[in-house]
Design brief:
Elements: H1 2-12, H2 24-36, H3 41-58, H4 63-77, E1 92-97, H5 104-117, E2 122-126, H6 134-145, E3 148-150, H7 158-171, E4 176-180, H8 188-205, E5 211-218, H9 223-236, E6 240-244, H10 254-262, E7 266-270, E8 278-280, H11 283-290
Parallel strand pairs: 1-4, 1-5, 2-3, 2-4, 5-6, 6-7
Antiparallel strand pairs: 7-8
Helix pairs in contact: 2-3, 3-4, 5-6, 7-8, 8-9, 9-10
């Protein structure tokens, strides 16, 4: 995949055949490589300092031992706790947030397909009633995934659509309701008010049901994605991140920066256009692939 290949090229310059020792030049090159991968300056500096201390303490000289040490350091930075998607007690309700153009609706369709393959009954809710043709796009994905859809006309109150979707979910014994919300960020107060309203409807109609609030980010935005994540976390109380378009960028180090600075787990990553190209995020696999 392009993302892993690109990052491997970056780290290969450090851990390549020219590696002779973990000297100061090596640590400087490694720090630069991590910055190029968009882990962020603070993450890169902290990781290299931690590796420098580990090398000195353990007397590491072998390239593979040093490589493994760095893997452990980065994995630890990405350890934000539970990265599972919780849908029980049913119906599990998953709110998708994020700005326009990041792949939010596409991610909903891909997750719906994934859950359907696991044998779950899934319903999609078109609560983005402001963007032109948003419900039409979601309907296309619902058909592809073989899922039901609740929608209303453009401009309808998003809460009314969610109410109808939750009523349908209870009546049809649905396992998961995936909710598309408006992809705009006028200001934090407006976002907070809208998501708070949707949350109250869920509390009233499905008390005790599992809840998730996922922020969809475009991996190619790099550090700008971190700014978005911080704003949405403060306004929406995020439970996880969906990182899209990871196959087309070498900026995937943003995964580490998000975990370090926000303490929010990346739960899924998008690795292509196909309907089955959404995968649960595995920190160990991620680090193994790039280093």
């Amino acid at each position: 995949m392009a993302f892993f290949d690109a990052l491997k090229k970056i780290t290969a310059n450090v851990f390549g055949t020219g590696f002779t020792a973990a000297d100061e030049a090596f640590f400087e090159e490694l720090e630069e490589a991590l910055i190029l991968a968009d882990t962020g300056m603070d993450t890169a500096v902290e990781s290299v300092e931690a590796l420098r201390r580990l090398v000195k303490r353990e007397g590491l000289k072998d390239q593979e031992a040093i490589r493994q040490g760095l893997r452990g350091i980065l994995e630890e930075k990405m350890d934000t706790g539970d990265a599972e998607l919780h849908l029980s007690p049913a119906p599990g309700v998953v709110l998708f947030t994020g700005v326009n153009g990041v792949g939010k609706t596409t991610s909903i369709g891909k997750l719906a397909f994934r859950l359907r393959r696991e044998g779950k009954r899934v319903l999609l809710c078109a609560s983005d009633t402001f963007r032109a043709a948003a419900a039409d796009q979601l309907e296309i994905w619902a058909n592809r995934a073989g899922c039901e859809l609740v929608r209303q006309k453009e401009g309808t109150d998003p809460g009314a659509v969610l109410f109808d979707a939750l009523q349908a979910a209870k009546a049809r014994n649905v396992d998961a309701v995936l909710v598309d919300t408006a992809g705009r960020l006028h200001n934090k107060a407006n976002l907070m008010a809208e998501l708070s309203k949707l949350s109250k409807i869920i509390d009233r109609e499905c008390p005790g049901a599992a809840r998730e609030t996922l922020l969809v980010l475009d991996a190619a935005t790099g550090q700008n994605g971190l700014i978005q994540a911080r704003q949405f976390r403060d306004a929406a109380g995020l439970t996880g991140i969906v990182l899209t378009k990871l196959d087309g960028t070498a900026k995937g180090g943003i995964v580490i920066a998000i975990a370090r600075e926000l303490g929010v787990p990346v739960k899924f990553v998008g690795l292509g256009e196909n309907i089955d190209a959404l995968r649960p995020f595995d920190a160990r696999e991620y680090v193994e692939a790039i280093i």
